[in-house]
Predict the structure.
Amino acid sequence: MPEEVLSLVDGQDVMTEIQKFVEENNIDYGLFVSAKGAMKDLDLILAKNESRQKMGQVFEISEISGKIQKVRGKYEINIRLSGSTTGFTSLSGKLINGKVSRALDIVIRKVNIGKIIEA
């Protein structure tokens, strides 16, 4: 399965850029493999208590997971992040939105859905 790297720079909107990237690369189904970099102005649904939190400080990403799926012609993008703030406070949760801080590289594995058998 081929992997694609999305490289983003400071200030770019992460969800908007992922949306454009998957459309341009015809990724009908994909998995987030890894990410290196940082984000700011995050909007997360926290894993520990399902509360929504907006963060202005820099969030260094240590792990990413989730999937991209095209359903009825529209992309559903589900991203889970783990990482820490500059004060070493660790957080994890579902990404609603956020911007790149300095730089961010995201590796996406493109999956050929024609080979997936649904039970």
